[in-house]
Amino acid sequence: METPSDRVPLAERVEQLLAEEGPLPIVAAGHPVLRRPTVPYDGQLDDALLTRFVQALRLTMRTAPGVGLAAPQVGVGLRIAVIEDPAPVPEEVRIARGREPQPFRVLVNPAYEAVGTERAAFFEGCLSVPGYQAVVARHAAVRLTGQDEHGRKLDEEFTGWPARIVQHETDHLDGTLYLDRAELRSLSCNAAAARYWGQPTAEEAAGALGFDLP
Description:
29% of the residues lie in helices and 27% in strands.
């Protein structure tokens, strides 16, 4: 189904979004833009507009707060995402999940492929699916390719939690939500997740809720 914003050129759509000060509105699950493959970025925004858009994505991600944000999550069907993770977690969580701080970076036209066959399963959430978390088994290591906002080539391997972030945000650009890959028996509201499943790993949740881990 076409929405009114589909008929607005991308640059004009971005200009409309940036007309208001502050964080951008985050689109929630159910909006068609989250279920469509994005258009590869090939200069639809001039340099100044791209810079402003990236800055707005960063502000929106940090305000939410989150560790990544894809353009469709603010209603723009371009293959652009941002990631950043200060990783403010206890040491046992950092070790169990391989969660290391990640600097702010822009991913333009990203794609990933698995490195090896190992998979890791942890609770995961999404700014476009507020209020819930679920266990997702993802590749433990991936190779990311694409460009940055300046057109420089990206070709980098990510492991642990950074690999999870890369997969989550790139999936958004393909019209895939984390729930599509989740173990639905693990689906928990945030309050239940905090009360029952705050452990570094998902083993207790798997045993109690009846699902398998890889």
